[in-house]
Write a structure and sequence with these properties.
alpha+beta; 3 strands; 3-stranded antiparallel β-sheet; elongated
């Protein structure tokens, strides 16, 4: 059984570029994403998720 990573794309946080599976080390990347376009939005998705978590009443740490 071989691993097929041909449809995996990553956003490199050091270079700010989208790259395929065979790119930089994983510590510098966000993903995998199913397309280069989706990977290009990685930082937007992170921001959206952070805002959702910050506003989730189930995660109120002030109690």
């Amino acid at each position: 059984m071989s691993d097929d990573h041909s449809n995996e794309w990553y956003y490199n946080t050091k270079t700010g570029k989208v790259e395929p599976y065979q790119g930089a080390k994983s510590a510098d990347r966000l993903g995998p994403y199913s397309s280069p376009e989706e990977a290009a939005r990685a930082l937007e998705k992170v921001q959206e998720r952070n805002e959702a978590w910050d506003n989730d009443p189930k995660w109120d740490d002030e109690d």
